[in-house]
Structures are given as structure tokens and as C-alpha cells.
């Protein structure tokens, strides 16, 4: 899963948007007037030779160039045509320049972005991704800037509403680290666990926030955890956006070899899960040039393709979850809080001073503090402590997903393994299939070696807990042509039996993986249609297990209990049982949290409760306590269901509660909502079904905005889904045209051969040297 393009709040936008709208035209007219030119001819500064851009029926650009520089200049230009405002917000988020257009509430976020900026050896940084990464990124950035120049007098409507202009891109803007924080884990969990330990003791904390595999929480009396709470990570949480429970983040991928496919060649399926937002985090493209012929999805602000295929190899990914973060607690000097104790010596923090431009105000002068372990993210003067984030982002080559520039060109398993040597952030289960019939998997990522602790709690910064380098890539889990003829991952615990290294202790519950495994293990000659169905599978294994517990409870309870116990566990949007089950689970989590955690920790605990933890706690509880929780929550669910859905059970539907809306951050009034917003759309599934549709208060906010299924026997038979559309410009026909397909679980083709591309071409644009 690639780095997030930040979805900012309405309030933040409005802080800088007041009163600048021109009223002579409607918003729709102004938005239409700002649309990019996608047909005909455009002269572009920096091109060496003409480049052909064929946009297909679904808005996917197929870019044909005669040189590598032109190919990536064109990719930058075309991505900016469709997503200029989105990628400008992404850039400003990473470099720490949001306050310049959004006002003073973003100063602290900008400061944090600058704290985690890469400050190491730039030669090593560029070389870590691919030998030609610098050349490619420089060309891509020239393309973005070229479009900014072309569109200077007709910027997208968002810029007009904010009275803002895009900045000039630099190659280093593609090396940003801030977004990688969300995918490197586990600083927020360390702090939550420390707070639990301080208030409840290590045994109770381990029970309530279990590690996988179960691991003892070792706490030293010489290192008190009191006072370590959510304040430590407030700035970090703000910087990475809304903090979501572990169940909300995930992905699925699987691959079968020819013995299990109808074609006799591998089939590969992948649906990365991330926030489902408008515009989409994903952007599909097809890049054809010397040494390049790759199609798939990436992020609009980065060159290359993250998940896709070339002439010989297909690839996809899910997050592994290697623990790539630690919180260090530095002891500061009483007389000078900018000095800290390390290896029995007082050392001066390194302090940098920067000025942050602020809209409507004088620049804000800020301090950035660092110790040997990394940036200081919080200070507690009363206890003489400074909290420091140590993470892999300070290492060269840890800008998320840029190693895709090498992955896009692999030709065989040997090439693939060589690329994995340089894959560092985020840690990914990368799956592989090639035209020769081979399949494989590699758990790639930079894995810190902790020799004397496990990374589950913050540690003292006195020098007693230091990383001892990183695991060699050859020692990371991997498979090639396994005897079961298929491979699947879904963010579950992927550690092989007997694996001797520590990668992490926090995985998603295995329900999605076990359902995929159940289907694939059943065998057969799978087709693309079979995998389309599996990617949209709404069977809940969690529900199966929960209902098995309920059937052991004494008789009684609401009338819906009988229907629930006879239900097949499929969370379809038209199911009354699914609606009641989800309401019941919400009530059950509240009761479990109240029974297990003291009032002051209940909210913290409940936010981290997932179905697997609830099931484990219920199974271990005395029968009387378990039955009381199950039956009381059923009674509460019956009352809540009537409140939410009415008294007529036959009218209850899961989709009536479970929807997704695509809200633009600027849609603050009726006219803007009409222009920008899409939906609502009813959804089935939940966080634990293969069709993952998690989110707060019965809404979907996360899941698969992009899906791919690749047919190695004939690339032109490959298909995908994306939502809501390829363009971020609301007047474009490709702003929301993919939403109906996505909502109905339908796919569109991913034409690859020149003949197939031309057959599906709807617009042709020639980019010519200026």
C-alpha cells in the first residue's frame, strides 16, 4: 500500500477559503473551464520527442514515449492533468508547507513533517531505489511543473476557491517521509500498551492488548512507565491523519499456478486496502518506452507503477507489518532540558531553527530537536523526559514505494529477489507470477534487529536498547513454487513455523486470510470470474465463530436470536441478519470493554478491540460471565436495531446502515456538495470479510479502492476496479464514472497490447516538444 495523499478537513480548507469565489459563473461552469486538455496537441517544455497519450474508456492513460526521460516527464504531466490539486496537497503535507495555504492550525503539522525529513547521504538515497531513480524522478517532476506552467491561468477549481497556487516541485519532493509513518508501525501501540501497563500491570496489559505470538511484557522498575500516555503521540497522530484501529487497515493478495487455473498459467489477484477517499489514492497508468511496458496502479504523486505487470511478470502486495518504529525516552538535564543522558554522558540535542509561512500571519519560527535516536516528538519537563521517535525513515532508500521503479522492470524470479534487497518501506508481502508459470512471495522490508527487547514498549534512551542493524533480505520469509500451488496473504501473521527472527508482534486478525485459504484450498480450475467473486466475498468467519459461542449459551433472548443462529454468516447488504449481527457486535464490544478495563482506559481499550480479541476473551472467560455478556448484548442490540432500523424486522437491511459517501473537503454548502460529492452507496461486508468495508459508526471509510486480477496467459484479459474515477477534477467525465462499477462489484478491462489499447481508446493527446 502506497503512501497516503492526505484528505484534509472541511474546517481546515474553509479557514483559508473565505470569500474568494467569483460569483459571475456557477461553480460547475468554472470547474468545466479549468479542465485539462486531453485531446489534440499540447506543446510541453522539456520534451525531446513527441509522446502519445491514449486515454481509454475508463480514463486510464496509456503513454507511449521514445525516450525514458520523455516517458516520465509525460507521466508527471498527465498525472497533474488529472490530479494537480491532490498531489499539491500531498507535496505540501510532506515538505511541511500546509500552513502557507491553510492557515495557522497547520503550523504544528508542518513542524512535524520537517522533523522527519530525510537528512542523510543523498547519493545513497538515490541509489537505493534503482540506478536510474534520480533521472526518472527528475523527469517526472519536470512534467508536473510543465503542467503547472501550462495551466497557470486556468487552475483546478480547488485552487480558485482557496485563492492558492501550486508550488514548484523539486525532485526531493518525491522522497518525503511523513506518509511512511502510517505504514511503519508501532509507536502508537507502544504508548497505548505503556499506559495499560502503568495502570493495570503487565499481565493485564498483555491480556487486553495481546501480542502475537504471546510474549511477556518485561518492565524494569528502574524505568517507570507512569506518565506515558496519548499526549506523547498527539503530534504524530495529527501528522499521519486519523488514527484507525488495526482492523481497518489491510489488504488481500493471492496467486495460483497453472495447475489451479483454467488457463494452465498463473492468475494473480490483489486488492490493497486504504482509506477510500475522493479523489482516489490510486491512479492507473500504462507506461511504454525503451525498457518499459508496465501497467497498473500507483499514487499520482510518484513515478512508476506500484502494483501491476510488465511483459513477463505480475506483482501485488499487502502490508506485512514489520515493526519499524520505537519510542525512546531520553532523560534530560535539570538545568538544561536541551541536554540528555546517553551512555553516562550528558549530550546536547541538535537543534534546527526553521520558519514556516502562515497564511494571513507572520511566519512561525519553530525549533526542531534531535537526539542520537531521532527527532524529539514530545517533552515532559516535569519528569525531565524527552520522547524520541526512532524509525527506519532515517535510513537511505526508505521513501515509500519508490523501489517500484526497479520492480516494474523485473523479468524473472532472480530479478525479483534482487529488487527485494532494496525494498525497505513499507514492509510488504509481495506476490509474484511470471509467464513461465512460476509463482512466489517475499516478505520485504527493513527489519530492525533488537537483541535485548521486543519493541512492544517504549525504552530508555540511555544506550541500553539499541538496534543492531537490519536483517539481511535473504533471511526474510519467502516462497517459490510451493507444493500447495497457491500463495495468499491478508496482513495476518505470516511467520513460517519455526522462524527464528523477530519481525513484529502485531498482525491483523486472520479471518480474511482463512476465508481466502478456504476457497483456494478447495481446489479447482480458477478463472478471472472466480477471483472477482472471491475479492467481493462477504462471508464472515468471525460471525461463524461468534455464533458457535452463542449456540452454547442458555436459551432465551430476543426473537432475532433464532434467525441469527440459522444465518449463513454472509454480510450481504440486503440481509436483516447481517444488520442485527453488526449492531450486536458493537454492543458486545462495549460490554466487553466495560467488563475488562477501568473507566479511564475504556475508550483506549475499546478502540483497539477487534473481533479476534473479543472471541479470545469470551472463550477464556468463565461460562457464566461469557453467557451474561452474550445475552445482555443481544438484548441491547434488539433495542438498538429497532431504534436504527424500525420495528418491522422484514425491512431491516445491512446496506441501509452500512454506506459510503465520497465527500470532498471543500463541499461546505449545497452548491459545492452538488459539484464535488458522490454517493451514498450501500455496502456489504465488514472489516473481517475478504470484501473489507470497515469504518466508524457503520460507515465504510477504508477498503479496496483499487483491485487487479492479472491473467498471465493473456495480459489483455486482465481486469481491475477503481473508485471513484481517474480524474480529480469534478467537471471531468472521469471524476466519478468508475463508482457505479465499483459499487456493483463489476470490473473493467486493463488493455495492454497496442491493438487492445487502440480498440478501447476514447481520447488521443499528442504531447510535443515546445
Describe this structure in words.
The protein has 770 residues and is α+β, with helices and mostly antiparallel strands. 33% of the residues lie in helices and 21% in strands. It contains 26 helices and 30 strands. The strands form 6 sheets. It has an 11-stranded mixed sheet with strand order 1-30-2-3-6-7-8-9-17-18-22. Strands 4, 5, 23, 26, 27, 28 and 29 form a 7-stranded antiparallel sheet that branches. The protein is globular. The model is unreliable at 1-22 and 242-248 (pLDDT under 50).
- Largest pleated sheet: 11 strands, mixed
Low-pLDDT residue spans:
1-22, 242-248
β-strand amount: 15-25%
Tally of extended strands? 30
- Biggest sheet, spatial arrangement of strands: 1-30-2-3-6-7-8-9-17-18-22
Shape: globular
Rg over CA atoms: 26 Å
Counting H and I runs of at least 4 residues, what is the number of helices? Answer: 26
Structural class: alpha+beta
Portion in helices: 25-40%
Mean of pLDDT: 94
CA(first)-CA(last) distance: 37 Å
Q: How would you name the oligomeric state of the polypeptide chains in this document?
A: single chain
